[in-house]
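User: I'm writing a short report section on ligand binding and want a predicted complex to refer to. Could you take this sequence and S-adenosylmethionine and write out the structure as tokens? A short remark afterwards would be nice.
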Amino acid sequence: MSDKANPFLEMFNDPEQAARYADGPAKFMPGFFDVHRMAGVLLRERAPRNAHVLAHGAGGGLELEAFARQNENWTFLGVDPAQPMLDEARRRLGPLIERVSLHHGFIEDAPKGPFDAATSLLTLHFLDAETRERTVSEIVQRLKPGAPFVAAHCSFSQTPTEREAWLSRYREFAKASGADAEMAENARMAVAEMMTLLDPGADKAILRAAGLSGVTQFYAAFTWRGWFGYAP
Ligand SMILES: C[S@@+](CC[C@H](N)C(=O)[O-])C[C@H]1O[C@@H](n2cnc3c(N)ncnc32)[C@H](O)[C@@H]1O
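Assistant: Sure. The structure tokens for the complex follow:
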């Protein structure tokens, strides 16, 4: 599957769904807002005070808002192929948009930087393994030497029994967090049928193959994992 064939893009290209997006992630991902704080800590270890940060898959603007509030001297490029999600990011950011540029498109067409840091949150799971590696490699090519990268997305054991058990837990966590039962089941089915789900080991290997060094898992919660690594 190429980027352009990503079936989830249809959803993110729907303005009504994009307008509702911000309510969703915290119901499905335990510690969603903590991941923004952890990512900020990890990026600040290596990024300068006036860092220019690449946010891949930045539609909705949630991490852009968090990072911009945490770091008043940082500037950002947000990359996303779904215009309604970028519109939502612009609306969410309000005056913070002064420090943010938004690129409508894929990473291949995005400005080359170089950037002091980068993230890809809740996005790489939409890409098949080959596209995922190529995409991370494109991000790495836009980073200064030694610059940090943080990724977090769905990644859990894909043995048939464990896969089914964790997909059910994904749905049940959303229900326990207040998501409508039908919506939670639809999300479970969509994740099972349309995402490229990988074992955490396979995801880590992709990040390494894309050129990152020191790849380390920093976050694990139910169906979610997060890693950081450094540009060569
Ligand atoms: C679940 S949302 C995550 C948004 C945001 N990063 C967050 O954590 O709230 C996934 C985003 O990835 C975008 N996306 C899908 N395929 C992409 C690709 N190939 N490159 C960049 N962004 C992509 C979607 O348009 C959507 O805005």
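A remark for your report: The mean pLDDT is 96. The chain has one domain: 3-156+196-230.
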